[in-house]
Amino acid sequence: MALIEIKGLTKLFGNRKAVDNVSFEIQKGEAFGLLGPNGAGKTTLVSMLVCLLRPTSGDAVLDGSSIVHDPMMVKRKIGFVPQEISLYGPLTALENLQFWAKMYDVPPRERTRKIEALLELVGLSDRKKERIDRYSGGMKRRINIAVGLLPDPKLLILDEPTVGVDPQSRSAILYTLRHLNQQGLTLLYTSHYMEEVEFLCPRVGIMDSGKIIALGTQEELRLLVGERDSLRIFTQTLVPEKIKDEISNVEGVSEVRTGENFIGLLATRGRRALPSILELLNERGVKVKSVEIKEPNLENVFLHLTGKELRE
Ligand SMILES: Nc1ncnc2c1ncn2[C@@H]1O[C@H](COP(=O)(O)OP(=O)(O)OP(=O)(O)O)[C@@H](O)[C@H]1O
Ligand SMILES: [Mg+2]
């Protein structure tokens, strides 16, 4: 069942289309990744979903409430972790959470318990009495996520929550989010780091210049561009010329190249083809030194679709 249905959302700044007729759905319980380079329109899109920005046209319906007609209801159902950190430096982490708990109308008798649980979740219970401006970038982000979770949202939207974050906090954030998703929380996660989206999000939309240019499961996106695994085999003994044709006959294998001590090829399912290839080499007396398999990834998909790198 769709938790949020986005229908033809468009946002114009002057005559620039920051978001251009975007439509897709996110199912209940999903972790959906929105991947796109700087300026793709990710922040503009999520700002409309959390009702901070009014769409020029189109709509999105979250759990029966429209962002255009019923923004108050939508706001109550969405937790938002913005790209810009929204915490008060001179206050402690605890005071920041108390402030936001009031803003989100968390009932007073639930506040303490909830705040403590969230501090525990993001691993900062023991630092809660320190001022935010003494926190590292990664710790601030983790508090930001706790803020996003205060209203018990049905959907948590995170806008590049790992930018400027140390590797340790980054992995803590990703594992926390995966845990929350496994507990049933629906996520919309924007990023320009393909490895984060690959880790967290089974289904991905790729955004560029305001448009969703591809959408599907990671597997579907990889197949979309017909990317195959690239196999490179290095040998100790000379590679006989005629083996090229024999390897080409292995199922799923194409574009075989050979050198004196090298065989390169593409395979639709590299790992499956490998045993047959190794057996063949063994039969022909070719000794293998090493094997490399490179799987297609979302970065390649993006490059293929746009001709651009995800990060410039
Ligand atoms: N308030 C604004 N006024 C005018 N133009 C804007 C405004 N906000 C965003 N834009 C433009 O809209 C486009 C999309 O910007 P947006 O911030 O949504 O991209 P993004 O995908 O979030 O990028 P990043 O990865 O850098 O955060 C850009 O060309 C940007 O310059
Ligand atoms: Mg942005």
Features:
single chain; 312 residues; alpha/beta; Rossmann fold; Alpha-Beta Plaits; 6-stranded mixed beta sheet; 4-stranded antiparallel beta sheet; 11 helices; elongated; binds adenosine-5'-triphosphate
How is the CATH topology of the largest domain named? Rossmann fold
> Radius of gyration over alpha carbons?
24 Å
Beta content comes to: 25-35%
CATH class of the largest domain: Alpha Beta
Biggest sheet details: 6 strands, mixed
Q: What letter string, H or E per element, gives the SSE order?
A: EEEHEEHEHHHEHEHEEHEHEEHEH
Q: Average pLDDT across residues? A: 91
* CATH homolog superfamily of the largest domain: P-loop containing nucleotide triphosphate hydrolases
User: What is the oligomer described by this structure?
Assistant: single chain
In short:
The chain has 312 residues and is α/β, with parallel strands linked by helices. The chain has helices spanning 42-49, 71-77, 93-103, 108-121, 137-149, 167-182, 194-200, 218-224, 243-248, 270-283, 298-306, and strands at residues 2-13, 16-27, 31-35, 57-62, 65-66, 78-81, 155-159, 186-191, 203-208, 211-217, 229-235, 253-259, 262-267, 288-294.
